[in-house]
User: Fold this.
Amino acid sequence: MDRRHFFTGAATAVAAASVSRVALAALPDAHTQSSTATAAPLLPPDGRPYNPVVTLNGWTLPWRMNGNVKEFHLVAEPVVREMAPGFKVNMWGYNGQSPGPTIEVVEGDRVRIFVTNRLPEHTTVHWHGQRLPNGMDGVGGITQPHIPPGKTFAYEFVARRPGTFMYHPHADEMTQMAMGMMGFWVTHPKARHPLIAEVQRDFCFLLGSFDVEPGSATPKVNTMTDFNTWAFNSRVFPGIDSLNVRRGDRVRIRVGNLTMTNHPIHVHGHEFEVTGTDGGPVPKTARWPEVTTDIAVGQMRQVEFIADEEGDWALHCHKSHHTMGPMGHEVPTMIGVDHRGIAEKIQKLVPDYMVMGDKGMADMGAMEMPLPDNTLPMMAGQGPFGPAEMGGMFTLLKVRRDQRPGDYRDPGWFKHPAGTVAREVPGDSAPPAASPATPPATGSPDATVRRPAGHGGHAH
Ligand SMILES: [Cu+2]
Assistant:
């Protein structure tokens, strides 16, 4: 797996001001971010204290205190998001990236957010899940005039309840969200809260989907369901950072869904509870253990667990097509189709034709076939034991006994204790299954019982 882009340690990677300070003298700096790395948590330099979140392959927006008001400056603008190393997509986002920076505030904070529109069309920002005056809700045409290109609007409200929220446009939504406009918002509790646990690690990411034709760089915004690029925070595995934690940590993961389908998010090796939604913390009596939680369109979920099992644990959407790169979906299933003698004939007409999928698709994980420029292989991730056969909404929860508190760096691959890795049983072998396209001449498949070989099945 390529980890060139692991955490570089830095809210200091945040550079200042892409917007003219002269023109916007009264506005707070529009901080911008050029890195797709997971930034270190932004410890609050002023205002009320809180335990910051870590945005997967993202960052938190610095603010300025103006009296007792926390002021932020979002800039809606075209960006180029590197979704994985070498795979760059033209998106619309905020402050240099898609998703935009995470906004973190404390319950009771008065917040003023300046939104400058540098898009070629009007926009607004809706603050999903917040209690606020109706005129601050960001629904273009209904609660406010749209923000025209080149203009700056201010939103102001009190972050009344703690929880997990997001922001996104409510103007030409189909286009603007298909282009990547979204961001996370966390309101921390102002004091110990009976339903909000103190955690050692607090991660957040948004689910996004894009339709990027292989070889192109701009998402097709009219696509309704048949997306081909499934992302955590606009990154696709193996470009998604791992969630690195210390064994015994209480871990919170906050996930929001701004795609057009549901995503069953599954964590291996641990069971968790859903402790909050965009509606607030879940009463303790309403929590139950799960290993998969379905996150419907427009929903947010926060899950929590004690990371007490060491290892590299998969964390992914359970829709198998969502852990794949830019594949075509109108492909016939070729399992069991005997291509012998046919491929050579087709190659006379189509020189690049190759046999694929006649034994399943696993070969794709290792295959090096020519792809159009700027196209991620379908399944690209490499693990210590070989190809991971994954891309898209997939990453790893890395639990280590020696991961220091506050250290979010990738510890590398897990070193399994001797005797704890699934292994080949020596002295036995079985031929691959007969293809379903060539069933046995007699008998129904239901009646076929294969006995374990090596126990009387063959001569010794
Ligand atoms: Cu999914």
In short: Residues 230, 263, 317, 319, 322, 393 surround copper (II) ion (CB under 6 Å). The first strand starts at residue 54 and ends at 55.
